[in-house]
Amino acid sequence: METITRSSVLARFGYALSDPTRSRVLLALREAPSYPGDLAEMAGVSKQSLSNHLTCLRGCGLVVAVPEGRRVRYELADPKLGEALTALLDVVAISGPECCCTTKDAHVAGRACC
Q1: Which regions of the chain does DSSP assign to beta strands (E)?
Q2: What's the CA gap between 9 and 30, in Å, rounded?
Q3: Which of 2, 67, 76, 101 could form a disulfide with 113 if both were Cys (CB 3.0 to 4.6 A apart)?
Q4: CB count, 10 Å around CB of 63?
Q5: May I ask the CATH architecture of the domain 6-108?
Q6: pLDDT tens sequence across 61-100
Q7: Residue 75 region, left (φ>0) first, then alpha (ψ -120 to 50), else beta?
């Protein structure tokens, strides 16, 4: 059985947030549970694309699928995740967007990010 370390948990969380669509989905689910069709429309992606993102988020342990008859509703796996997203947004807002490497090129080229 694999031991889950704190660093691997953070790495999964970071991976999930590294995609803008997954980030939008997590932020939407922070507000309220939702259905795949509604999430796809909100995120501006196809239902198939959203399905792939939801699979990723489920695999990372961040969202759960809740059957409702013939439909499936998605919600955050733990309410604390919504609180963590809010706290993370507050921290990012403080640091400012101008102090962030948004591409791997900055790292590869050895340029300073800030």
Answers
A1: 63-68, 71-76
A2: 19
A3: 101
A4: 26
A5: Orthogonal Bundle (1.10)
A6: 999 999 999 999 999 999 999 999 999 988 876 665 555 5
A7: beta
